[in-house]
Design a protein that fits this description.
It holds the Pfam family Spermine_synth. The chain is of the alpha/beta class and 241 residues long. The strands form 2 sheets. The chain has an 8-stranded mixed β-sheet, sandwiched between helices. A 3-stranded antiparallel β-sheet has the order 1-2-3, with no helix packed on it. Helix content is 32%, strand content 29%. It has helices at residues 37-49, 66-74, 87-97, 112-115, 144-153, 171-183, 193-196, 217-220, 232-239, and strands at 2-6, 13-18, 21-27, 56-60, 79-84, 105-109, 124-129, 154-166, 186-191, 202-209, 228-230. Helix 5 crosses helix 6 (171-183). The protein has one domain: Rossmann fold.
């Protein structure tokens, strides 16, 4: 079930709820506005990791395509594909949010774990996993095979980004990081300190690449919420792996 909620006091801001979970926050007149904190962090990580210019990006989990709108606005000429399991949701998002058309932004209905295998080796700059079944990540997007497919499709300078929900026990985070280390030379994360310390639930952004990952601590600390960057050593120490 999808529900579009108008934000009180805002002329053209909406929150898209999918199966009762807030999944996208969209301001039609301002694609640079990312009200969900983890999406703001992702945008800052992307801008720190890549020089100015277009990107070839795949978003696994489309919802309202908030981050795709940001990339389209800040990096003209980018080619993006947003994959979602629900074709009806894609149709609604296209009409509700006036999304860019293909090839700027192609919408593809399908299972992200299957669709990532259709992209050529070394063809992508960016793969973003932000897909949920209610409030958990679908199992097919947490396997060794899925991460290997992402690594195969990404260029050597490419970046994998994932929104990892963390209830405080770090179980999903620990499992993802462990498998990503087998496929990528560099793995890091960003989140609020209280979440990383297991004091409350929230979102952790995980990043992986064959190339060194930019230290984004300073740009994250200028965000609306003060997030912290954990390099490979700090992340491993925190997770005990």
């Amino acid at each position: 079930m999808a529900r579009l909620e108008k934000v009180d006091g805002e002329a053209d801001s909406y929150v898209l709820h999918v199966n009762g979970v807030p999944s996208s926050s969209i301001t039609l007149s301002d694609p640079l506005r990312l009200d969900f904190e983890y999406l703001d962090w992702m945008s800052r990580i992307i801008d720190a990791q890549f020089a100015a210019g277009p990107l070839r990006a795949v978003h696994i989990g489309a919802a309202g395509c908030a981050l795709a709108r940001y990339v389209h606005a800040t990096r003209p000429g980018s080619r993006q594909t947003a994959v979602d399991i629900d074709p009806v949701l894609l149709e609604h998002s296209r009409s509700w949010f006036d999304l860019p058309r293909s090839p700027a932004l192609a919408l593809r209905a399908g299972d992200g774990a299957v669709e990532i295998e259709t992209f050529r080796e070394d063809s992508l700059d960016l793969v973003i996993r932000d897909a949920f079944d209610h409030d958990i990540v679908p199992e097919a997007l947490t396997t060794r095979e899925f991460f290997a497919s992402c690594a195969r499709a990404l260029k050597g300078t490419g970046l994998y980004l994932a929104n990892v929900p963390d209830p405080g026990d770090h179980a999903r985070l620990r499992a993802d990081v462990g498998l990503l280390r087998e496929e990528f030379a560099h793995v890091a994360a960003a989140s609020e300190p209280a979440i990383i310390k297991g004091r409350r639930r929230g979102n952790v952004v995980v990043m992986a690449s064959q190339s060194p990952i930019a230290d984004v601590d300073q740009v994250l600390r200028t965000a609306a919420t003060l997030a912290s960057f954990l390099d490979a050593r700090a992340l491993g120490s925190r997770l005990g792996i």
